Amino acid sequence: LDTDESIVIGMLGCGVVGGGVADRVLSGITFRAGRLRLGGVLVRDLSKPREPSRVRQHLTTDAERVLNDANIDILVECMGGVEPAAKHVESALRRGIHVVTANKALIADRGARLTAIAGEYGVALRYEAAVGGAIPVIRTLEHLAECDEILEVGGVINGTTNFVLSAMEGGRPLEQAVRDAQRAGFAESDPSTDLEGIDAAHKLAILSATAFGAWPRWESIARRGIREITLDDVEYARSRGCRIKSAAWARRIDRIAIVASVGPTLIPIDHPFAAPRDAENVVLAIARHAGPIILGGVGAGREATASAIIGDLADILRELGRKNSGAPDNEETRYA
Ligand code: HSE
Known about the structure:
The chain has 336 residues and is of the alpha/beta class. The two termini are 21 Å apart. The chain has helices at 16-27, 63-67, 85-94, 104-121, 137-147, 159-169, 174-183, 192-195, 198-212, 231-239, 302-325; strands spanning 7-12, 29-31, 34-42, 59-60, 72-77, 98-101, 125-126, 150-156, 222-223, 242-252, 258-268, 280-287, 291-298, 333-335. The radius of gyration is 20 Å and the shape is globular. Strands 1, 2, 3, 4, 5, 6, 7 and 14 form an eight-stranded mixed β-sheet that branches. A six-stranded mixed β-sheet has the order 9-11-10-8-12-13. The chain contains eleven helices and 14 strands. L-homoserine (HSE) binds next to helix 6. The site of L-homoserine has 11 residues, from helix 6.
């Protein structure tokens, strides 16, 4: 990339998170390596209302129009689900296009394969937005894993279930709280994915791979959902000085074995896992030398997740800028 050149971002998906990214790019973001420009945006339905509406002129239902654009530098994938996202991401990596994705299901299922392909083709595959929304979880764990040995990792990593359980503490029944979470844009298109712990298992698999250096099968993570939790259970927890949280945890047993689980857990009120309210998340890693490290923030929703994607774009551009110019590491972001 030459200075002053536009960096063209192609996109797959323009829902809650994709719309947030498109909005930020269209509002104008300039990095030292150049200004971000929006290319084609793949959607399934051209007639659906979009936020922001000015993204309309970028929309296409033809993936090749996005991927085959000779100008595209980075693909941002926000379409969700394993296929066809995997096929498109793989195709982009093989064409030398860097990829940033928010797709937990994709990375949990295909992370090993896609990172190997990215390595083979010398391009970046970043997925900070896949776990913990705005919280810089992946980069922190990558750094910690490089300089220490991570023994345990986990947290409260599904915003929807946390939002629902928080609302239940205020007396709101589960079904109504789920509808609120859907309206707020936290829940997956099928909220069962959140309520049955599948989304948290995807994220725990990614945390585990980042912390321990091997991709587990996410399906092998022991998993329980929150559908059976009642207002009486929530009240019982309160009477015992606890909160019910959907907690995810992975622990290394030896060099090759890991135990991992996701499910509703009684958490004492003064434990870090009791702290997140609404769609907030918390991640705790325990390293041999560093001890416990706790990260918290907004774990779901349009702005928080888009912000992690913009962070990944900044990282890729900083790396490209360094490779191309040997410039010092003092990237600068300006907003128009
Ligand atoms: N449905 C997910 C959640 C979105 O509620 O945490 C963010 O990954």
